[in-house]
Amino acid sequence: MHAVGIVAAAGSGLRLGADLPKALVPLAGRPLVAWSVDALLAGGVAEVVVAVPAEQRAAFETALPGVRLVDGGATRTASVRAALSAAHDLGDAVLVHDAARPLTPPEVVARVLAALDGGARAVVPVLPVVDTTVAVDADGVITGALPREQLRRVQTPQGFDRATLVEAYGRLPAGAELTDDAAVVHSIGVPVRTVAGDERAAKITVAHDLALAEKQVRG
Ligand SMILES: Nc1ccn([C@@H]2O[C@H](COP(=O)(O)OP(=O)(O)OP(=O)(O)O)[C@@H](O)[C@H]2O)c(=O)n1
Ligand SMILES: C[C@](O)(CO)[C@H](O)COP(=O)(O)O
Question: Where is this site: Transition state stabilizer (predicted)?
Fold first, then answer.
């Protein structure tokens, strides 16, 4: 199976609050996006396309020499759509990954690829929910507890049969924004399988996450 990786790296990282785009923020001296590209390649992806903020393209070319870059969009959905258009002729599988998950172990990538190889059209890595999880009303008052044994936290990379992902994005209305790519294929009725995720694949969202990742790298 020839798998192409798409790395969504065009976000600004408002919640992290750094003075450069989140994907370029260094972790142990290397930009987050470089770690995430390497994770995909180490796990068995053959080549990678990275969606970057158009106005920062030169900085990304420096951070990722020789890697194919495309201009991302205003939302994650738009960025993945742009990269998928650029990559649509490549490979029979596509793995979509967040630049913000730099320490994803290669085993997670390999598990996603193995499930695709086994015939799945859509695969996501997941983790159990470990806290009591509740719904609240507009005033923040709990309206009920959710059955956490049925809930999962969804990570990336998310893997797809290429034709399925292309069709799902093709049928998604322009301007629609979904929080991940599994939701895009689910919206056209494709079953999404799950494989085990990994706590080390945590998303860097706020400064505390970056501090934890630094500790993880430095041991
Ligand atoms: N227009 C966008 C927005 C997000 N992303 C990417 O989607 C991933 C997950 O998004 P998130 O962690 O929310 O990143 P940001 O949107 O940059 O963060 P924030 O919401 O704090 O600004 C990131 O790797 C980010 O670069 C993207 O490619 N294009
Ligand atoms: C794609 C994702 O990482 C799966 O958990 C998540 O939906 C991204 O959410 P964000 O709000 O764009 O960080």
Answer: 15, 22
